[in-house]
Write a structure and sequence with these properties.
By secondary structure, this protein is of the alpha+beta class. The protein has four helices and five strands, in the order αααβββαββ.
Amino acid sequence: MLAGALGIALAAAWLTIGWPTSSAIAHVSGEADAFRAQLANAKQQAAQLPALRADVQALGEQVKRYRSLPPRSELDAAFKEIGQLCERSGVRAYQFTQEAERRDRGFVEQPCKLKFRGDFLAAATLVHQLESTSWLSRMRGLSVRRVEPTSANPPPATDEVMVELTLNLYFAD
């Protein structure tokens, strides 16, 4: 009988002390695992911070460059630079024409058309260089067609393309 009472007392003690403690330990262990996962995620994000800082700095430089438009007087220099890019890129038979400029509040929009022929790599390089210039521009249209050989146009040594590019240049008024 004493053994039965002692067994009941031990069982009651386990139910009031031991069982809640083991469930609390399991709960705390689950929380610790969640915190470890958050810590690993935070470490991974922290490792990306130097690259993100460099991106933010580069974007800041772009914003500074585009915040103020170049003066209208630099338009001729932009046209000259486009001609030099065409000559350096190796494209042939380029034609550069200006359309009527449009004025708006504080800026001038100068639409231009550029047509040229050359191998695909030279054409792609020129388009990339035009997009990377320091003046603000917007490419409105791009048409790239393969030049088909005819009797008047003998077959080229490489695949040649004809490119028609329409872009807008923006300058302060």
